Please model this.
Amino acid sequence: MVASNISPVKLSPDVTPVTQTGAFALMDSLFRHGVEHIFGYPGGAILPIYDELYRFEAQGKLKHILVRHEQGASHAADGYARATGKVGVCFGTSGPGATNLVTGIATAHMDSIPMVIITGQVPRAAIGSDAFQETDIFGITLPIVKHSYVARHARDIAWIIAEAFHIASTGRPGPVLVDIPKDVGLEECDYVPVNPGDVKMASYRPTVKGNPRQINAAIELIAKANKPLLYVGGGAILSNAHERVKALAHRFQIPVTTTLMGLGVFDEHDPLSVSMLGMHGTAYANFAVTGCDLLIAVGARFDDRVTGKLDEFASRAKVIQIDIDPAEVGKNRRPDVPIVGDVKEVLGQILNRLDELNLPTQTNTQDWLKTIEQWKTDYPLVVPQPEGAISPQEVIVEIARQAPHACYTTDVGQHQMWSAQFLKTGPRRWISSAGLGTMGYGLPAAMGAKVALPDEQVICISGDASFQMNLQELATLAQYDIQAKIVIINNGWQGMVRQWQETFYGERYSSSNMSVGMPDFPLLAKAFGVKGISVRNREELSRAIALMLEYDGPVLVDVHVTKDENCYPMVAPGKCNSEMLGLPKQPPTFS
Model:
């Protein structure tokens, strides 16, 4: 949507207005929209809002989590949203407070995460004067939000918030920014509450149902395919479509591969699963997408880390693409059958239409499935066990063994890819920055997920380089006793950067070694009031993970692993998905 400055005032004739401040209108509106937790950091321009927040907290209506850096607030709100499907909310003041939120806003935008971001702004009269801590956060964030508002009058706030939640959570989800000048928070107005469901926006009506003709065309292709493949992305997670993905896969015996964002949507213990595809996907997933004759893209956007060399991606296949966002359909790959609509709704339409047509269960994929099973045998994921050291893969496999149903967050790099390869998660149990690849995401995202899911295990898997970007949030864990668990895969490097420098840049390791100046992480955790555990040999690993999970409080486990392990398979830039580095034998040929 095109960003706008103001929402129209709409007073219901059935409600008598009461005099309240803009800050009250904001807090009451958030409460009415089901907000329970807000992640934020106060400052001058947002003080009127925090003053009202103080009253709402005292009444037990809302709980504020004081982060140590605004980037932590935006990532925590993001993790909260991913874990629950609800809209995450964060606060930041004007100027640097608002700009510190930008990385988290961009992360949410790239991964289509519903968030409402409230920023303070200098008083209306000072806007444009380069006042103290003034930045045009509305303009700065225009490319990375779904919609934006500047609240010019206190009377508009209730409708702005109602619209913001509606926009953030419907259609293709995304972050919505609401910038509130300081004097608007203080201004009194005739306040009329606006409840969820009251908003009707004529200019914003996402297409939910698929076109029936396209549904029939998709079914015709599926019924004829001998080598179909379901390619499922984050859109299926966002629409809670996992049961319908499973139903379609089982009905036609179609193998399923997922993107990094789609992990958890399909049970990876299911024989039909070929796990993740793409740059560090499984060999058998990448072979399957290369050899399939029908690719069914479900809430996936043909990202470059998935496709490799685009013109050779599924080049032998017809393509069905299902997506809520019409801008994504055909953006990178022209589909033979484009279907715009909510993934869950469209899959439901396909399944219902199949019932109406009374088509027999698919039987002509058996040879295809046998081929894929052979690939799984010939090209497995490998867990090295080096003598006298621990491999990164061992750590992740051990965590998965002891905590199979945990909610996992990650940072970005090698540990993220190994986690994607070896963790077998469920829907909304995999939380990772995929599109933007944001280092420093894992800890605050785990914080948000654990606040949302206080009775469930939440584990952050990080790298020593990524962890140092937002380690200050250990203080937030300690203050609120947020019992997230953190495992650092510590190899003393920016691991993925080192791997690329080794592979493509002649082993010139420019500014990627992190060993000099690295803190003692368990001692650092202790300084923040968090339990720290160090692991340096294989014999200690299992017990350390068990202690981490048993401990009543936040824990950091620092595991020292081999320093030169590379993450394979790997599709080199510009190569076809079937041309992977690190395979145990030559890849199959595709005619």
Remarks:
- The chain has three domains: 18-191, 212-378, 392-567.
- The chain has a mean pLDDT of 96.
- The radius of gyration is 25 Å.
- The longest strand covers residues 115-121.
